[in-house]
Design goal:
GO terms for molecular function: monooxygenase activity. This is Quinol monooxygenase YgiN. Keywords: Monooxygenase, Oxidoreductase. InterPro entries: ABM_dom (IPR007138), Dimeric_a/b-barrel (IPR011008). Helix content is 34%, strand content 34%. With 96 residues, the protein is of the alpha+beta class. The protein has a single domain, classed as Alpha-Beta Plaits (2-Layer Sandwich), CATH 3.30.70. Strands 2-3-1-4 form a 4-stranded antiparallel sheet. Strand 2 and strand 3 form a beta hairpin. Helix 1 packs antiparallel against helix 3. It is globular. The model has no long low-confidence stretch (mean pLDDT 93).
């Protein structure tokens, strides 16, 4: 299992449009093979800063979604609402 952390900064005043586009993106990811779950968070006191935390079965499932036509299509409506490129970090459980 891996977790994908996506940080996004939204243009001021476009928070509602972003929320609609992000909900649509999450709705599409629900049908992606290997998607386990996810949540969207807003930073306290900074309505322009969002964090998406998604869980995937494995790296292959994430890469398949990340490179998919479906994600490219939903990102077309989301990207113009951002002030900078999204930052994506990939985490895996530690092994002892």
């Amino acid at each position: 299992m891996i977790k994908i952390i996506i940080e996004r900064r939204i243009m001021p005043g476009l928070e509602e449009e972003y929320e609609a586009a992000a909900r649509e993106a999450m709705r599409h990811s629900l049908g992606a093979r290997g998607f386990v779950g996810g949540e969207s968070l807003v930073e306290l006191g900074h309505s322009d800063r969002r964090l998406m935390i998604t869980k995937w079965r494995d790296m292959r499932a994430w890469k398949e979604w990340y490179q998919s036509e479906t994600r490219a299509r939903v990102m077309q409506s989301l990207l113009p609402l951002l002030t900078e490129e999204e930052r994506i970090r990939i985490y895996e459980p530690t092994t002892h």
